[in-house]
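Aim 2 progress. For Opt oligopeptide transporter, the working sequence is reproduced below.
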Amino acid sequence: MASTNFAVRTTMSFTDIMPTSQHLRWQVGEIHINRKEPSLTLGDADGAIPEKFKFHQETRPFHGIDIPLSLSRQDTMNDREKEAPWPPSTPDDGSPFLGKKEASREKVVETTIEIDPTTEKDLNATNEDLDHVRVLAREMSVEDLFQILQSVLKLHENDQNFPHGVMMKIRQFLENNDVRDHPEAHEMLINEMKLEAALITSDSPYPEVRAVVGNTDDTQLPSLTFRVWVIGILFTAILAAVRQFFSIRYPKIAIHSSIVQILAYPVGKAMEKSLPDVGFSFKGVRHSLNPGPFNKKEHMLITIFAGMFINDPYTLSLVFIQYLPQWFNQAWSANLGYQFTIAFSTQFLGFGLAGLVRKFLVHPVHCVWPTQLPIIALNNAFHEDDSAPLKGPWNKTYSIPRLRFFLYVMGITFLYFWLPNYLFTALSTFGWIEWIWPKNTIASSVFGVNYGLGVNPLPTFDYNIVSSLLDPLVYPYFATANIVFGVAMAIPFIVILWVTNTFDCAYLPVLSTRPWDHFGQEYNVSRVIDSNALFDGEGYSQYSPAYMAPSHVMMYTMWFALYAATLSFACLYHGHELKAAFRIMWRSLPWVEKGSSPRSYQDVHNKLMGSYKEVPHWWFLIIFVASIVTGSIGLAVYPTSTSPGVIFYGIFLCLIFVLPTGIITAITGQMVTLNVLAEFIGGLIVEGNALGMNFFKTYGCMTAVMCIVFSGDMKLGHYIKIPPRHTFIVQIAGLTVTTLVMVGVMNFQLHIDGVCTPDAPGKFTCPSEQVLFTASVFWGTLGPRKIWGVGGIYAVTLVGFPIGLVVPLVTYHLQKRYRHLSWLRDLHPVLFFMGAQGLGPWHFGMYFPALPVAWVSWRLVRRKWLGLWSKYNYILSPALACGMAISGIVAFFAFQFYDKNIDWVGNTVNDEAGCSPGDPCSRLKTLDEGEYFGPRMGEF
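Predicted structure tokens for this construct:
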């Protein structure tokens, strides 16, 4: 075996010979081994070696053999230490690998260091990861190993984030009885499994988490400081105002949450340098204007605080369509009491629910929350120096610190994004097939990337398009692949519906989410409602049924399949977690006898968080109940024509889906929203009442969405080891500031002359609110019964429900039968259906480009250069996002806001070549003047 030089970092090799009180003080140690001489250095962060320790060593030639190392403590203890029991007693923390302590003042730790060039790849771990746990693995018995790996198999058997190769080796280890009977014959497998078990018990089992999340904590770092309050409130107010002001403009101005981290750092450092250390002590804790260096916990709390600006109240859009005369014209909706009651209710209801389910969506180790990892990586880049060289492509080493890498990439992206965003917009939607055959029905509808299905192998040179729906650097590869596969499989069915004129689809554009009438025009919802915004049957019979484009038909079929698949998948693949959740919920009831309960999740992050006080459940319960009461007041006191009972129906729907959808989001990064199901059920419950349907949708869908979003923020605090009560406080404060500011800005917008009309000043045309109004009438006023009921045009699409129930059953049993097939294990039916329903308004060209990028990152670089990938992958994603966001903001305010656009072929070619939904070339069949398709007048 080839010799090498490397360093093994360890904190546990000398735990047994020092008091518990000293363990964290003197934990920095390295064992440097080379061919000639092994040595150990033990010291604190400044390199000082405690005098009471000495090191003995025996030097042998190193050729992959054992090197006995012993570490002893000199007899120079003070009186208090002499009275302490030796060895120190260690409470049972659920980590069986620690073994028993020997009652002696000196313990020799023999460390077997064996170099296996394939171990790093086999275990999906870097050498640094393995070096951290070699001593822990050496102390582990085979019996303890069996116990740990049996628990791992039970928890991670269906976990697609858990490396498939590692899972197969765990099965090989557990299912081979000869391993336990003759361990000497399986030494290599046992050693690998010990390393894996040590990784799992002392760190995260996921390489992506180990890449950015530390497995240590400094409980002395201040977190909820004066700086957090000042910077958090300031940025939350400013960003919330900007977001709301431009929310009704087309095009919108997008502000990435990473900008908060970038802006907060220099402000925090400036306050560190300028503010005096003046403060007071309360309950033994000092509170100062300047408690010391601006640290990562403060930085992350500010990010969580100010990040609340993204969670704008959904009810604000409801107020727009209620108040404005071109829509429902309900002037009473300008009442501030009404606005605040429904806004605070919908905002805090999801937050209260997030706290109640945090044991199932935040604490479990399998809830990775991949979308939060880039935020942590950027936070680490600001506060940690990491210039150690790493091997990478072309046999070179790379040592650039992550912060410098972030700044370089952000700067390059800032410059490049001017091309697809302003100077040469055809690079963004690269419709070269349409340029070859302009205004061609097939070329535009099937291959077009502007108004068609986007079947184009080279659809864009704009990373904003690549990452707009799927961030290929962040989402696990299996998630990206399943969604793209689902989109690809949906395209042939859409084309078949179109060319065969099924549901009269040939008279409509192939890709559209708008409702159409039987004249082939956009559905005029004002013709089927009366002055009170209720359904007008006579107007409907004299006008037209509502029709859907083929992509829209496919979308709803797959939505129905998606909801059924979500429940089926959760029961099959996450039944263990759901049973544990309901068991804990049941045992938490006050009248249930508690008895002994199984130990909760005890991964290293939960153990470290045990140092801080948890937020009591009743705090969140009070917020949850208060939100229901507040919402009920808003619906009952004001003339909403909606019963407060709608809130409870909506919450019931949310409670059914919140754990299945939350677990899927926490593992894959993809959220299954309940908007279509809420519209479908709400339209049946309050048929003919558009506003009532919207409130059902708000409390059924948006409560679950907000719950999952807030759970992700809680996971940020969990990973960074922020006291949970501090996270709780800043989330409450951030939500409050966001809601107050956004409601204020909205009231200013309501009084802009011509707002939300095609000729609105400043392009404040309210495209999202227009879609909401159309959906309100479509689902609430017309109601799903006319579309999907008995005799309804699209009743057959309800077949999606049984399809969604069955497909997870099939994949589950196939994966059980053929466990060795890694590609089969990666199949995820929920994500497949999520992709299949994604065509409209988006096209294949907005999904496909993410797949090759994801393959390069997750399959090529991650497998060949895991250390390099771990260091840079999650910092690359926010660097690209921030570069594009800042470039877009500058271009927007400098040129686009004043309509200063460059008129040349690179910016106009797509408009000239494509077929927009209103063009005759977007239809396979056309109608003459006065003709219409479908049932004759009086037959519907």
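The chain has a mean pLDDT of 84. This observation will guide construct design in the next reporting period.
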